[in-house]
Amino acid sequence: MLPIVFEWVNDPSHFVFMGGFYAALGILFIVLNYCLIRAVFDWLCKGNQDGHEEH
Amino acid sequence: MFDSALIPEGVKRCSFRKFVIWILILQIPILIGVVAAILCWGLALNQTYLNNNFPFGLWIAADLGVIALGGGAFFTGFLRYILNIKELKNIVNYAVVIGVICYASALGILAIDIGQPLRGWFIFWHANVHSMLTEVAFCISCYFMVLCIEYLPLLLENRKIYQFSVPHSLAHHLHEAMPTIAAVGVFLSSFHQGSLGGVPGVLYARPFAYREGFLVWPWTFFLFILSAIACGPCFTILITKITEALGGKRLVKKNVINILAKIAGGLTALYVVLKIIDTLAWFGLANELGAPVKSFYANGPYGWWILITEVLILGGIPAVLLLIPRTRQMESVLVIACVLNCAGILLNRWVLTVQTLVIPVMSFDKFVNYFPNWVEWATTLLPVWIGIVVIMLSYRYLPIFPQERELNPY
């Protein structure tokens, strides 16, 4: 549910419930992307240093 | 062996032929379950024995049960990554695999139970934020994502995948980020375990289940969290012991199992004490409101024996067995204690789902009993068979048990 949906009400219940939900989703999204970006950077840096991948 | 390149280094597995035969045998009950699921989706829920008296039956009881049993994943993660009990790193991987299976089972059963899975997204888009069930749906879905993320590094550590640079590095960084992921998991899991208990606890028209509580949470909210963290580790131990017995080898050191069993024992004892206090307080409240307690235990098979079995035999006995160091260290006793503990939680969920609905609440209500039919049994057992296949695949191809090589040199 987003604030654009007609059932949305600006009350504490909606802010707490949906806030908790989006906070959890946001943390997971950030952590996953952070790990993925670091993994790609590791690969790129290693590629530049060694000139080949380590298999 | 045909697939030897995929098997973790330094460990022994059965032949590929034997493995495939077992996978094929498991396809038979899986097929029966799939047929039953197609019947439910194709011909609607009248294929089951659910009716207006029993909108909640075996499916919901099983849902509540597997979610409690899967609680071992979030609680072991909490102990390992938040409380930093290092020894548990040797069992946390398996707890995650079991957790993934349990939560996937719960979501799968719910997908059949809602009758029209195409409208499953309604609960997310048109959410009633005051409903315990909405909270459960949100938290279970999110926590399943957390479990998948926790399972991902295990997949990436497969011998062949791990040779590639990006998966190797991604698995490493995911391991580093695991405390954050585990913390999100603990937040989500606590709330949905509790809210599942809150669902019967707020039914003020059902005096058998209704409880007073703290703020918006009935006492059943807290009892459900406590019972899940008490029995979840026992289920993890039980499945580990079954895997060891079937594999014919030790996979986890005794001290690791002992730590988990000791914590589970302490929590089970605390749960039993609080459950007894809650039951006695409920006796008093019910009598005060003019609903004699004996009337709750005078319906068909649901007599006093069920309360005694649930609290004392399946709660008290395992708590004592797990708390005494000598009995805890005896393997057969440990397994019995874990079986009793897990059975107790399943009975508790059945009582709060089905017995709650069995008891007549109006003077003109008649006692009607409920027995699930084969469609309900087949669909409920479907995730069990799929779960066994997932465990077989994970055990064969992923390095789940870090101590396996040390314990079984060859």
Q: Outline of this structure?
A:
The complex is a heterodimer of chains A (55) and B (410). Chain A is mainly alpha-helical and 55 residues long.
Fold and architecture overview:
- With 55 residues, chain A is mainly alpha-helical.
- In chain A, 71% of the residues lie in helices and 0% in strands.
- Chain A has a domain at 13-46.
- Chain A contains 1 helix and no strands.
- Chain B has a two-stranded antiparallel sheet with strand order 1-2.
- Chain B contains 15 helices and 2 strands.
- Chain B has helices at 16-43, 58-69, 71-82, 89-113, 122-125, 132-156, 165-176, 178-201, 219-247, 254-288, 304-323, 325-328, 331-358, 374-397, 404-407, and strands at residues 213-214, 217-218.
- The longest helix of chain B has 35 residues, at 254-288.
- In chain B, α2 packs antiparallel against α4, α3 crosses α8 and α3 crosses α9 (219-247).
- Chain B is globular, with a radius of gyration of 22 Å.
- Chain A binds chain B through residues 1, 5, 7, 13-14, 17-18, 20-21, 24-25, 27-28, 31-32, 34-36, 38-40, 42-43, 46, 53-55, and chain B through 124-127, 129-130, 134-135, 138, 142, 145-146, 149, 163-167, 169-170, 172-174, 176-177, 180-181, 184, 187-188.
Topology:
The complex is a heterodimer of chains A (55) and B (410).
Chain A: H1 12-50
Chain B: H1 16-43, H2 58-69, H3 71-82, H4 89-113, H5 122-125, H6 132-156, H7 165-176, H8 178-201, E1 213-214, E2 217-218, H9 219-247, H10 254-288, H11 304-323, H12 325-328, H13 331-358, H14 374-397, H15 404-407
Antiparallel strand pairs in B: 1-2
Helix pairs in contact in B: 1-14, 2-4, 2-13, 3-4, 3-8, 3-9, 4-6, 4-9, 4-14, 6-7, 6-8, 8-9, 9-10, 9-13, 10-11, 11-13
Defining traits:
heterodimer; A: 55 residues; mainly alpha; 1 helix; disordered C terminus; B: two-stranded antiparallel ribbon; 70% helix
